[in-house]
Amino acid sequence: MSTTISEHSTIKFVSNNLENTQKINLYKRMLKPRLIEEKMLILLRQGKISKWFSGIGQEAIAVGVTAALKKEEYILPMHRNLGVFTGRDIPLFRLFSQWQGKANGFTKGRDRSFHFGTQEFKIVGMISHLGPQLGVADGIALGNLLKKNKHVTAVFTGEGGTSEGDFHEALNVAAVWDLPVLFCIENNGYGLSTPTNEQYRCKHMIDKGLGYGMEAHQIDGNNILEVYTKVSELAESMRENPRPVFIGVHHL
Ligand SMILES: Cc1ncc(C[n+]2csc(CCOP(=O)(O)OP(=O)(O)O)c2C)c(N)n1
Ligand SMILES: [Mg+2]
C-alpha cells in the first residue's frame, strides 16, 4: 500500500512499502554528500580550493541509483554524482586522499579530482569528454550479457552531454543489442550556460531514448523515494529481461 507523506510540497513523496529504516537510510545517504559539498563550497569561496562541481540539489538521483544497484554492478558517474562514491561506502579518508592528490589515493597522486575509477568499488572513472563513457557502459553490459551474470550497468550524463555524437551511438547499439544499461540522463536546465532550449528541440528529454526504440521513463530527480523505488523495479526487471532503459531525470 502506498502512503502519501507530504501533500503540501510540490514533490509528492509516496513511500511505496518502504520501511522507515530504509527511508532513514536513504536520508542519511543523501545527507553525506550534501555535508561534504557544503564544506567544499566554503573552501572554494575562501580560495582554498580551485574548483568544485556542485551536485547540491541533485543528490537523490546518484544516491537512489546507487542504493538500488547491487554492489557488484558497475556505475559510471559524472561530475555531479558524489553520492555514487559515498553511496558505495568508500572510506572518506581514501576519497579525500584521492581528491588531494595524495599517494594513498586511488590514482596514487597522479590526479587531483574525482575523475577516477576503482575496481574495488565497481566505479568506472568519469571520462572528462562528455559522451564517451556511455559507450564504455555498453561494453561492460555486453560483457555481463555474455557472462549471463544478470548484472545491470548504470551510466550518468547531463542533458548537455546528449548533444555529443557518442551519446547517440551508445544508445543505438545498446538498443539493437539489448544491452542491460540504465542510461541516467540528468536535466538540470543548463549545460554550463547553455539552456536546454538551445541544446535540443525534443519536447521531452525521454524522446531521445524513445527515438532509438528504447524503453524510457521520466523521473523526478528531486524525489528520493520515486528514484529509489522506480530504479529498483527497473533494475530487477532488466536483470531478468536484459534491455537498455533510459531514465530522463528532471531537477527542475
Ligand atoms: C566534449 C566536451 N565538451 C565540453 C566539455 C566541457 N564541459 C564540462 S561539463 C559541461 C557541461 C555539461 O552539461 P550537462 O551535460 O548538462 O551537465 P551538467 O554540468 O549540467 O550537470 C561542459 C560543456 C567537456 N567536458 N567535453
Ligand atoms: Mg545540465
Q: How would you describe what is shown here?
A:
The structure is a single chain. By secondary structure, this protein is α/β, with parallel strands linked by helices. It has a single domain (4-88, 123-250), classed as Rossmann fold. The chain is built from 8 helices and 9 strands. The protein has helices spanning 20-45, 59-68, 82-87, 92-99, 132-147, 165-176, 207-210, 224-240; strands at 4-6, 13-14, 75-76, 153-158, 181-187, 190-191, 194-195, 215-220, 245-250. The longest helix is centred in the first third of the chain and has 26 residues, at 20-45. The radius of gyration is 18 Å and the shape is globular. Bound molecules: thiamine diphosphate and magnesium ion (MG). Magnesium ion is lined by residues 158-160, 188, 190-191.
Strands in their spatial order, largest beta sheet: 3-4-5-9-8
Poorly predicted parts: 1-8
Mean pLDDT over the full residue set? 93
What is the first-to-last residue Cα distance? 28 Å
Proportion of residues in β-strands: 5-15%
Written as H for each helix and E for each strand, in order along the chain, the element string is EEHHEHHHEHEEEHEHE
The name of the CATH superfamily reads Thiamin diphosphate (ThDP)-binding fold, Pyr/PP domains
Number of helices: 8
What is the structural class?
alpha/beta
Summarize the amount of helix as a percent range: 25-40%
CATH architecture: 3-Layer(aba) Sandwich
Number of domains: 1
Shape: globular
Estimated radius of gyration: 18 Å
Would you count the extended β strands for me? Answer: 9
| The level-1 CATH class | Alpha Beta
